[in-house]
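If you are new to this repository, start here. Below is one unmodified record pulled from the training split, so you can see the exact layout before writing a loader.
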Amino acid sequence: MLTIHADSRGHAFAVQGEWIAAVGPLEELAAAHPRARVRSWPGILTPGFVNLYGNELLERTYHPDPREADDLGTEPLTGDALTMLVLDDARWGASARRGIQRMLARGTVAVACEPFRNRAVKDAVRRSGIGVMGRLGSPGDLPSLDPFRSARPPMTATERQQGSAARFAVFDVRDEAELAERGADTCLATVVGGRLVFRRR
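And here is the target side for that same chain:
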């Protein structure tokens, strides 16, 4: 089934399976595909972001389970706090899944990394469908789940066009300037492989 995603500016993507079938104004796409399901979003559609810290945030960080909050808190653990934990493959895999979900909740559709060494993390990434690309130089600052909190300007995935992979995000802002000011916590929804993998409640 073809789905049209449209934002408050009238920009729209027509998605068929894992691919973008067409890009253009909502009026044109709706007229060309009258039987399509239409999702109208507040805010803006963007290509989604690449998080530069795939290895750091998934293999060198533990994302606590909410049931561990009393003992470990809710924030990601690194350094000495991480070394004190006893982590088997099951816990690493669960941590990676939670870390990926946190990325998706900030409009991240791909990670840049060296090849993952932890098998459980590698499996979690593969199953999530999030994109993986090679390391893009050394990020050089503190890893962050929010691409706007990095010292480097946020990097978007390939611009959405007809025939490209359906990977994009929706942010509850008026334009790109407000997005840069308020950051990725304004994410309303993230689509990866044509599937709605995150939607703010």
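Two things worth knowing about this chain: DSSP finds seven helices and twelve strands in the chain. The domain at 2-47+159-199 is CATH 2.30.40.10 (Urease, subunit C; domain 1).
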